[in-house]
Specification:
Layout: H1 23-57, H2 64-67, H3 81-112, H4 117-131, H5 134-149, H6 154-178, H7 182-190, H8 195-223, H9 227-232, H10 249-257, H11 262-294
Family: Belongs to the binding-protein-dependent transport system permease family. CysTW subfamily.
Domain ABC transmembrane type-1: 84-286
Pfam families: BPD_transp_1
């Protein structure tokens, strides 16, 4: 028979303090240590490359490299202003092609026909293209643009880079649109908005931070690609001429890193640093824009 508890007896409360040697606490400590160790190990190559870029590329960092042309074999000094302009021009062309098509495709995949046969095929093709070697985009652009135009050009380079950007923009924009709460869409339709008005005035503004993130990722990938530009834009030691071979930072780094001249090797390190800084600035700007859109 159970004895009733009297008011004078003390009720024992469980000990809620963390005990390090308890099985669950010990398991948590071990797994946390493994996670921290793996994260630090993964960051070591990244930071070592950044330190090396800053150390070796920073030696030649000056205003001259932004407006001077590449030097000849035995010439000292010089810069890669034409490569910066060419990179910005070709990435700009690729963005003008990939962003509208990628966002429109994402709208169809996320809202208009998410379960249709066309959407399934489009998703499969986009995911496949994100894993394909970038040189295939260069070969396609070479056959479709360079051979038709009869020469290497910045237009061909921009089209080749757009082929790499479209799948990234499309897939990330689709996920961003799917993240918009259904209640906001229903509220817009309940207030009398048409489907197109709801998409333009409600869904896309809410999804714009995710879309911008996808665009920046695509731009960062395109800016660092070398293989597609070797087949399409090639290289030039002169300033930008859109209908002729065009210089780019990625190809300049590829060419100069294998030369036996110290001046060109130093410029290759500096060009690598500038390319990394350009991608970093794009990421910072996208974060700022994304935060403003959220507020």
């Amino acid at each position: 028979m159970n004895t009733p508890i009297t008011l004078t007896e003390t009720i024992r409360l469980p000990n809620l303090e963390r005990q390090p040697m308890e099985p669950r606490a010990l398991k948590s400590i071990v797994l946390s240590a493994i996670t921290v160790t793996a994260a630090v190990t993964a960051c070591i190559p990244l930071f070592s490359v950044l330190i090396m870029l800053i150390y070796r590329g920073g030696k030649r960092l000056s205003l001259e490299i932004f407006y001077a042309l590449p030097p000849t074999a035995f010439e000292m000094g010089g810069g890669f202003g034409n490569a910066i302009v060419g990179t910005l021009f070709m990435v700009g062309i690729a963005s003008l092609i990939s962003v509208p098509f990628g966002v429109l495709a994402a709208v169809y995949l996320a809202e208009l026909g998410p379960y249709s046969r066309v959407s399934q095929i489009a998703r499969f093709c986009a995911k496949t293209m994100t894993g394909l070697p970038s040189i295939l985009a260069g070969v396609f652009a070479y056959a479709a643009v360079v051979l038709v135009m009869g020469s290497y050009s910045a237009w061909a380079g921009g089209i080749a880079l757009s082929l790499l950007m479209i799948p990234v923009v499309m897939l990330t924009a689709e996920e961003a649109i799917k993240m918009v709460p259904q209640s906001m869409k229903d509220a817009a339709l309940g207030m009398g908005c048409t489907a197109s008005q709801s998409m333009v005035k409600v869904v896309l503004p809410v999804a714009i931070p995710g879309i911008i993130t996808g665009v920046v990722l695509a731009v960062a990938r395109a800016a660092g690609e070398t293989a597609p530009l070797l087949f399409t834009a090639l290289f030039s030691d002169y300033w930008l001429q859109a209908n002729e071979p065009t210089a780019s930072l990625a190809v300049l780094i590829y060419n100069y890193s294998g030369m036996p001249f110290d001046n060109q090797i130093e410029l290759a390190w500096t060009a690598s640093l500038v390319l990394v800084l350009m991608v970093l600035v794009l990421n910072v700007v996208s974060r700022i824009i994304g935060r403003r859109k959220r507020t």
